Amino acid sequence: MHSIEVVLVMLLAVVAGGYLTRVMPRWLPLPLPLVQIALGATIAGVFGRGVTLDPHLFFVLFLPPLLFLDGWRIPKSGLFRDRGLILQLALGLVVFTVIGAGLLIHWMIPVMPLAVAFALAAILSPTDPVAVSSIAARAPIPKRVMHILEGESLLNDASGLVCFRFAVAAALTGTFSLMSASLTFLWLALAGVAVGALLTIGVNRGHALVSRVFGEEAGTPILISLLTPFGAYLLAEQIGASGILAAVAAGVTMSYVELSGRALATTRVQRAAVWDTVQFSLNGIIFVLLGEQLPWIVERAVQSVREAGHVDPWWLAVFVFVIYGGLFALRFAWVWVSLRIGLYRSGRHDTRPRIRLVAAMSLAGVRGAITLAGVLTLPLLLDDGTPFPTRDLAIFLAAAVIILSLLLGSFVLPRLLRGLEVPEEDEDDRELDRARHEAAVAAVAAVERAQHALPAAQANPDLYASAAVRVMALYEERLRRDGALGVDAAELRRADEAERALRLAGVHAERERIYALARHREISDEVARKLVRDLDLMEARYR
């Protein structure tokens, strides 16, 4: 019963955090993750203790669905277009950070062994897709930069965790093999991607086959989509591959499977609503859990600092700021060089990246749940039975860097991007116009065929001919507007916005009238629900 109460309290904290971020004044633009962390710390302080977090259970319950959803929804065109830069950040930057930050941490804190310093640097190297998305909600990050950051955060988890695993192994045994680490990384990456892709394809094809023969329940495809990331993660971990990459690959594959169009329209609408709820809930619980861990993390870190000879706990703040500064400097240098190489290869005359843009990409590399869960997996004892050196201090430094990166990203990044001129891409608008035009052409042809092919149309041709004229008029109006000559595209879009606003006003009026009829019992609630659902789908189309 205690576990149920804890889960309910955390969900209430997630809901309360959403309200608090909306009522806060504009001069205090705290992002939702920071508010949730503060609520988690408050819960731990009020009740005297927080939730005992099992890192392995945390990985299994929270990360697969969130990474799956990010892989599913991330724009694939941007991911493949900037794959070179994304791979440089996801692989090269991680190794660069492990070496540079590890040496810095060991130099600054000599009591922390070099292998432990490398382990801390490795778990600090991955950026977090959840935290990146939260920062993006408050900062006007250019679309292409956001795609690069999202792609990096999806892929650098595996490389960071592999480096972390080998650094911990070196701390336990005192040995390290570069060849073994390289081969292990290849197996983790390739096998993880293969498991995620093959499982998703197999499950969806099997479901489609069974559904064609026996039919399906309305909630079955939604439940299958919820179970797929867990299956991919657990199967990959069972064979020693990367469960994280398996979940990401499953999400990317799901986006292509979805293009088959087998799912019903109502299923897609319901599935999107379910996944939005899952994403909001899990994201919130992650940061509430981080806040609940803070009191005992700080307490044990202060004790570690005193045992190390630094009596003043303010040394902890010094360590945190120096480590974050080192991470920022390493990321800034790597991003600057990578962008300069990319500009040179593209044939640009000016190959110097904008300093503000590089600084923004560096600040946007915030840390989050994977860093916290990973550092908590540090073993308690060495192989000889002695306590793992500076474990509590490493956990505190990781948690503090997470919070500091969120704070700086939330407050500094919007000011850094303010007034930054980034060329706007109209590629999305062109693709949208082309897709609407070709869809309208296909719709007119389909209506013409159906007008004569439907069995009921042969029995009542005049009725169907009249209906076909009304339906095709909507599509032909769109085709006329798409083919209009001498008309500014921006003016057409403004006209579309005006029409959309008027249609929404009509939908709102319809809905209010239906509710009024139902309240006065002039229509049944069943009829009201059916009509309101149609209006809701229409409103979702115009949003």
Automatic annotation (TrEMBL):
<keyword id="KW-1133">Transmembrane helix</keyword>
<dbReference type="InterPro" id="IPR018422">
    <property type="entry name" value="Cation/H_exchanger_CPA1"/>
</dbReference>
<feature type="transmembrane region" description="Helical">
    <location>
        <begin position="314"/>
        <end position="337"/>
    </location>
</feature>
<comment type="similarity">
    <text>Belongs to the monovalent cation:proton antiporter 1 (CPA1) transporter (TC 2.A.36) family.</text>
</comment>
<dbReference type="InterPro" id="IPR004709">
    <property type="entry name" value="NaH_exchanger"/>
</dbReference>
<keyword id="KW-0813">Transport</keyword>
<keyword id="KW-0812">Transmembrane</keyword>
<feature type="transmembrane region" description="Helical">
    <location>
        <begin position="393"/>
        <end position="413"/>
    </location>
</feature>
<feature type="transmembrane region" description="Helical">
    <location>
        <begin position="30"/>
        <end position="51"/>
    </location>
</feature>
<feature type="transmembrane region" description="Helical">
    <location>
        <begin position="86"/>
        <end position="109"/>
    </location>
</feature>
<dbReference type="InterPro" id="IPR006153">
    <property type="entry name" value="Cation/H_exchanger_TM"/>
</dbReference>
<feature type="transmembrane region" description="Helical">
    <location>
        <begin position="57"/>
        <end position="74"/>
    </location>
</feature>
<feature type="transmembrane region" description="Helical">
    <location>
        <begin position="357"/>
        <end position="381"/>
    </location>
</feature>
<protein>
    <submittedName>
        <fullName>CPA1 family monovalent cation:H+ antiporter</fullName>
    </submittedName>
</protein>
<keyword id="KW-0050">Antiport</keyword>
<keyword id="KW-0739">Sodium transport</keyword>
<feature type="transmembrane region" description="Helical">
    <location>
        <begin position="115"/>
        <end position="137"/>
    </location>
</feature>
<keyword id="KW-0472">Membrane</keyword>
<dbReference type="Pfam" id="PF00999">
    <property type="entry name" value="Na_H_Exchanger"/>
</dbReference>
<feature type="transmembrane region" description="Helical">
    <location>
        <begin position="6"/>
        <end position="23"/>
    </location>
</feature>
<feature type="transmembrane region" description="Helical">
    <location>
        <begin position="273"/>
        <end position="294"/>
    </location>
</feature>
<keyword id="KW-0915">Sodium</keyword>
<feature type="domain" description="Cation/H+ exchanger transmembrane">
    <location>
        <begin position="20"/>
        <end position="418"/>
    </location>
</feature>
<dbReference type="InterPro" id="IPR004705">
    <property type="entry name" value="Cation/H_exchanger_CPA1_bac"/>
</dbReference>
<keyword id="KW-1003">Cell membrane</keyword>
<keyword id="KW-0406">Ion transport</keyword>
<keyword id="KW-0997">Cell inner membrane</keyword>
<feature type="transmembrane region" description="Helical">
    <location>
        <begin position="242"/>
        <end position="261"/>
    </location>
</feature>
<feature type="transmembrane region" description="Helical">
    <location>
        <begin position="185"/>
        <end position="206"/>
    </location>
</feature>
<comment type="function">
    <text>Na(+)/H(+) antiporter that extrudes sodium in exchange for external protons.</text>
</comment>
